[in-house]
Amino acid sequence: MKGDLFSSDHMVQPAVAPGMTIQNAKSIKYAVNGDMLARQGAMIAYRGNLQFERKGQGVGGMLKRAVTGEGLPLMTVRGQGEAWFAHEAQNCFIVDIEPGDELGYEYQLTWDSTDDPDELALYRCLCGAKACRGTMLDPEPLDKDKNKAKKSKSKR
Hints:
Number of strands: 4
Mean pLDDT: 80
Distance between the termini: 85 Å
Order of helices and strands: EEEHEHH
Radius of gyration: 23 Å
Helix content: 10-25%
Strand order of the largest sheet: 1-2-4-3
Low-confidence stretches: none
């Protein structure tokens, strides 16, 4: 066979340091030297002396994922070698997070004022960040404007 696909430009280069590097727009190469966590089903190739172990989330993790849709099935990658990861042909990027950095995510989970308070309590946030609102729910219920309209009509 001939073609530039088989040129040295397309051959995998050995890792120079442990950690993540962008392999191309759709995949990440991770040089493993010890243990790392990865999304189950995301590994597309590996080389070296690596072992893979499914990481269970337990009953609490399963319940959390069922209620919130949050959480990923993970696996442990252990040993020395390189592994390549991709997910649904999405673009990949690497963000360096320094000690003390905080990440935020606005879940935008909606709720109504008539929802069961015990059920709403399942959406509390326990991250401990100073600016955390303490919940994954939107600040105001969806029916807030409807309730205002009902109150103003009843005052007339």
